[in-house]
Specification:
The complex is a heterodimer of chains A (about 280) and B (about 325). Chain A is built from ten helices and seven strands. With about 280 residues, chain A is an alpha/beta fold. Chain A has one domain: 3-Layer(aba) Sandwich (Rossmann fold), CATH 3.40.50. Chain A has a five-stranded parallel beta sheet, sandwiched between helices. Chain A has a two-stranded antiparallel ribbon with strand order 4-5. The longest helix of chain B is centred in the first third of the chain and has 15 residues. Chain B has a seven-stranded mixed beta sheet with strand order 3-2-4-5-7-6-12, sandwiched between helices. Chain B has a five-stranded mixed beta sheet with strand order 9-11-10-13-14, sandwiched between helices. Chain B folds into two domains: about 170 residues, Rossmann fold (3-Layer(aba) Sandwich); about 130 residues, 3-Layer(aba) Sandwich (Rossmann fold), CATH 3.40.50.920. Chain B is an alpha/beta fold. Classes of the chains: A alpha/beta (about 280), B alpha/beta (about 325). At the A-B interface, α5 and α6 of A face α4 and α6 of B.
Chain lengths: ~280, ~325
Amino acid sequence: MITKTEVHNIMKYSCLIRRHILEMTLIAKSGHPGGSLSMTDIISTLYFYWLKIDPKKPLWEERDYFVLAKGHASPALYSAMAERGFFPVSYLKTLRQLGTGLQGHPDKRRLPGIEMSTGSLGQGLSIMVGISMGLKLDKKPNRVFGVLGDGECQEGQVWEAAMSAAHYNCSNLTIFIDKNNLQIDGTTDEIMSIDPIGKKFESFGWNVLTIDGHNILEIVSALEKAENETKKPTVIVANTVKGKGVSFMEHQLCFHGSPCTDEEFCIAEKELKNALGEITCQI
Amino acid sequence: MPDLAGTRDYFGKTLVELGNENPNIVVLDADLSSSTRTSMFRKAYPDRFFNAGIAEQNCIGMAAGLANLGKIVFASSFAMFITGRAWEQIRNSVSYAYLNVKIAATHAGITVGEDGASHQALEDIAIMRVIPEMRVLVPADAIEAGQMIRSAAEMPGPFYIRMSRGNTPLVFNSIEYQYEYGKSKVIREGEDVAIMATGIMVYLALEAANELQKENIKVSVVNISSIKPIDEETIIQVAKKTRAIVTAEEHSVFGGLGSAVAEVLCQHCPVPIEMLGIQGVFGESGKPDELLIKHHLTTEGIIDKVKKVLKRK
């Protein structure tokens, strides 16, 4: 069982990561804060509680494999990696700059700890399935985790991969759908409905769990259930809010691919500082 | 009549040998394993064979995932579908990440025959060679195909290897021939003109050279089995000597071998070049030989181009 302190610790990191996301995209004057903020609580639970990883040994044989299929949310991943010790937090300021390891979308050849280069939506799940099949072939206990966007599920390849994950009994595979209901051109309902997404995965032979993607206890409990599943791959449909954690960014489409302004950053920073203060009191 | 053998058969056979030598070799196919001959590996090592079904994009993605784990991965299907349908997966999931995936395609070119244009890849060399890090190889015969597959398995990173459907004449002797990665070999010397050929056109180039000898035209024949990396040194050397080049390929004249040779020569040794290939059109149903004749991919077709280029010399 996860303790209260552990939950608060994860929440603390969520606050720190949210601040990093806003700051690094502000400095870069580009990037995708909205979808990074929506998956922040998932990434902090994974990086500060669940994943078996060692920042000193990114290629550790016994590690869990994490693939960020929705590569545009790289600011969330980079922030988690920095706080976890893969590289100095100060390096986050180099996001999207010439020569940086922090490419606009993750590049495994430029940044140790990135499991797989992603960015082109729809390709990540196939990679995860390949890793999962290879681990099973070698009879290794390592597990595979990933985060997909909800809009990303409009890509046909996701369903080819979903079919194969069930066919090859990839029970060592757990994915999150960061279901924030927004994509560049509008809501997923307007652009191309993906619902009922859970039922779709279920009919493809997956173990399906639906949670509040900002509730740490629910995230952890879903991960525990996924670990106990012995036949099917698991999808955790995480209902999230785009821009989560910053009042004026929540549910706002405009922050999908644009950073906030200097003034907005000041307001956001205060909000996040207050939130962090409340959490720290409880640790 | 020359001895015939299938590049795909030697590919399948070599895969089984490699599988026996190295437990790290895995093979994927997209529901065409009996045609591509990966079925031979499937039967020998069922645990290490994964069928993606009729889903080439996911096939390449899974191949990338397995390679990410340290496997040496062969992914196979028809040239049309594996390079065409899954082009972006090959670029972004395989080459960009520099993963150890060998895309071994069969049924390339017009000699697919009766299945017609939808199945005849005439653009695959072009679309594969523009991808950074990708190596593009075309064996001249089955002997070279086998050695090429073995070499690719021993080298890190992505490869595209283009093979045929039919049995094709043997150019090389299995005991004597030694494939060398990245090298184009001059397999016949002559100072008047050079034919630079790839794949099934190499044998025809040798035949054309023999015919031209009768007219006292001395022809060099170069087997360009490595389209990328291209052997600039050999190509420039031969061009300097002969000052006239014919390229011959069972592929579109746009973006294939002819273009690759021209890219080298226009910069380093500009000499007249005639390009023999498919003239930017779709194929159609027909017997492989009939289609080759229709598109002048024959000994006579090469001879015509040689005479044309000699006039420009």
